[in-house]
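Request: Could I get any protein with tokenized structure?
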Amino acid sequence: MTRIVSDLSKARVLLSNDDGIHAEGLAVLEDVARTLSEDIWVVAPDVEQSAASHSLTLRRPLRERKLADKRYSIDGTPTDCVLMAMKYLMKEQRPDLVLSGVNVGANLGEDVIYSGTVAAAMEGAILGTRSIALSLRPDNRDDTLFHWDSVRRFAPDVIRKLALWEEPGNLLFNVNFPGVPADQVKGVKVCRQGHRDEETTVVEGSDPGGRPYLWVGQFVSHHTSVPNADLTAIAEDYITVTPLKYDLTDQRVLEKMGRLFL
């Protein structure tokens, strides 16, 4: 059963991500985490693993590299990293909290299915630890600009409240910060996962040797504003918090299917 943290300052906290051990978002998250606890561990992929989803490395061995005390890189996926941390590197005393991120780019709506950031947090929850995925949307007008000041100002309070909440269970939260400076953030909204009408393009080409290739191209999405959805709230410059679960059962359809195969 998941142990609920009562004193965050004494908690053992595991950090991971999908952007890699040297990512700016991980450095920001580490700074934030150290304002909350002294026992911080970092176990992250050695290279970027964006959109790795919940994949595991099964056909080759994994290699760890110790970079400093309580700081490791793994040549695997985000899920590999959390699994190796909790089952091997930290097996004598597992973490009380898993934080994944801060991802460069939001993870909203369908993004959570593809996201390695969310998958790392989900693996923590599966293994019995309360987990939080954190992502930052690019600036509303310039998608190369990220307002890390918003994360630094608001993430400590968001993490503290979610970590100390006295609700039992292997809880998993998806947190997204809007693409505006800290002084323009309107607040925090608890939301459900939204939905986009999305189209993915496929780009055809050939390499310098003349061999054809296919490349996943741009995601073209159309979002209809829906009340209490993460996509709507983030567009209104709110921080979004969405509780997730790894049970993907469609309960409504399940109830209707009861006698279908009798």
